[in-house]
Hints:
Elements: H1 2-44, H2 48-66, H3 71-89, E1 105-113, E2 123-126, E3 131-137, E4 146-150, E5 157-161, E6 189-194, E7 200-207, E8 214-220, E9 224-233, H4 259-265, E10 274-279, E11 284-288, E12 291-296, E13 299-302, E14 305-310, E15 316-321, E16 325-329, E17 335-342, H5 344-351
Parallel strand pairs: 1-9, 2-8, 3-9
Antiparallel strand pairs: 3-6, 4-7, 5-6, 7-8, 10-11, 10-17, 11-12, 12-15, 13-16, 14-15, 16-17
Amino acid sequence: MMTTLLSRSQRGLDMKYFKAIVLIPLSVFCLTSTGLCYAEDDVNAEPPVVEQQRAGSAIVQRGRAAMIADPQTILNLRKDMQQSAAARRAPILDEFEPGIPQEILDIDEMFELSQRLDQTTPKVFLAKFQSTAISFVDAYGKPWPIRKVASYLNGLVAIEKAVPERNGPAKEGEESSQGTDLNDPQAGSITVTALKHGVVGNITVYLYNLSTPISINLVGKAAMYHKTATIKIDDAGPQTDVSRIHENDGVVIGSKADADLNNALYGVSPLGSETMVVQGVEGKAWLKGDFIYLMTPVAVFSPQIFGASHGNGKYRAYKLAKTTEAIGTNTDGKTVVIKIMRHPSSDISEQNGLGGGTFK
Length: 360
């Protein structure tokens, strides 16, 4: 019995020593090995710059892989992108519903063109089924006949010349019966009408005796359009006789005197005249019979001038045909429109039975 107990005690003691000698160093070894493994991973880790370079290289490879398509496929993709961009900018050519109210503003404008290369192209607004009258005049207000109108807007814009081409026999004094009558007062006018909404394009107009073609941009608008557009060229046209422009402008001794014209030159009302109201420029105007007497610093060239007088100051006096508008050139060289209207007091006098003429 004693021997058996000693044997068991000896075996228990041996097991304790085995745990202390074998298991503890094994645990330490495992911990140490794990630490060495972690340390080895930290040493072999790459810096962030290298990782970024690898990522960039991967992107480059993907981009090159996307470019392996054939040239025709690439062209088709570019075409699709261009059409998408153009579709975002292009106006809509469509018919609006009849129930949608469409109030349109009509405007009148004059465009002055010179022979310089940096000249701005006139921009004329169009609206569907609204006719725009485009007229060409020279520096003296005379119509400039149109030779030809070039356009590729068939089906979008209708263009019609005011004076048709002549095909009949030549009249007496004419060299040819073909083409446009250069002396016709409407020879320099065309009518342009948009047939669809949102029309955008341009036309080229060729004028007689002018080497430079005139280009006009046409822009479709929904709420406004040019009722009339006047294109003025700073040159003399075929209907202007340059040799007679300054005829009888010189001072001639013994020339006949016009008392009414001299009175208008110094701001004195002509005898028996009615004082008018002038708008647009500085000046005064009077109505006497069938003539308008106008005092202004503007060089008037339209309507017909029956007499003119120049003083020592800046003002000039003109005897014009009875009209409500006169056109001239100011001191800056720009064309201006002079409005001539009756004074409100004249209408009041007529209503009260105090007399007064009628201005039409």
